[in-house]
Here is the input.
Amino acid sequence: MDRLTFTVRPGRVTGFLGPNGAGKTTTLRMVLGLDRPDGGTTTVSGVDFRSHPRGLRHVGALLDAGHVHGGRSAAAHLSALACSNGIPPRRVANVLEEVGLAQAARRRIGGFSLGMKQRLGIAAALLGDPPVLMFDEPINGMDPEGVLWARRLFRRLAAEGRTVFLSSHLMSEMENTADQLVVIGRGRLIAAESLEDFAARGTRPGVLVASPRAAELAAALTAAGASVEPQGPAGAGRLAVTGLPADRIGALALEHRLPLNELTTGTASLEEAFMELTADSVDYLAGQPR
Here is the structure.
């Protein structure tokens, strides 16, 4: 992995993106002192995390919800963490209530669903009431209610002034949750900027237009320097246009006396920007579906 230099600031949800194998989990593990970098340093609030004797009071993290002792109860698991980190025992009941597992406190973790284990992992991260929180794919296995709950939780934690660092493959969740993005590929830093600035780097967003005389409209737009691609089923008359703004497209249609059924300016797509900007960093590229 190359040297990555970026800063994650408090009061925001920072999304961490990258293709499979890019080094996201490795980066999180190095921040937590679980793996050692070949060179360079990782710090939390300017300090090496391993120097904290009671780490959960400084950083709460969920890396793998399955790495728990299945024979323990949820309460016993959290109690052990609380004891080893000097955290008051009352916090166990508090965080179980916070994540919706109060009724399952005495159940063995081995019988939990993946979504319940994710909630337990989030509870462990919250246990020490830390200023910094790191989550690796925290909503995998959650039902829609759980996803909405987690999204609101991350936003609330950031609003409280905490640093929330969230790794996920789900672009929709990043669009709904993150303020900032850090994007890596093959161990290299691709971007560290606001979600809006990153999405705007994509080249595909443009204007969607529909006309019963779509072929004539396409010819006129192409002659004016636009790039035009058919959209939807054949004969639908819908075109995706890049290279011309909506007002210019409307003026050209009026000039050529071509009726329009639709004229919509597209919004920047985070998914499209991500796919374009990481295209050269994908290690495990699948074949095209047949």
In short: Residues 144-159 form the longest helix (16 residues). The CA atoms of residues 168 and 271 lie 12 Å apart. The two ends are 35 Å apart (CA to CA). The mean pLDDT is 88.
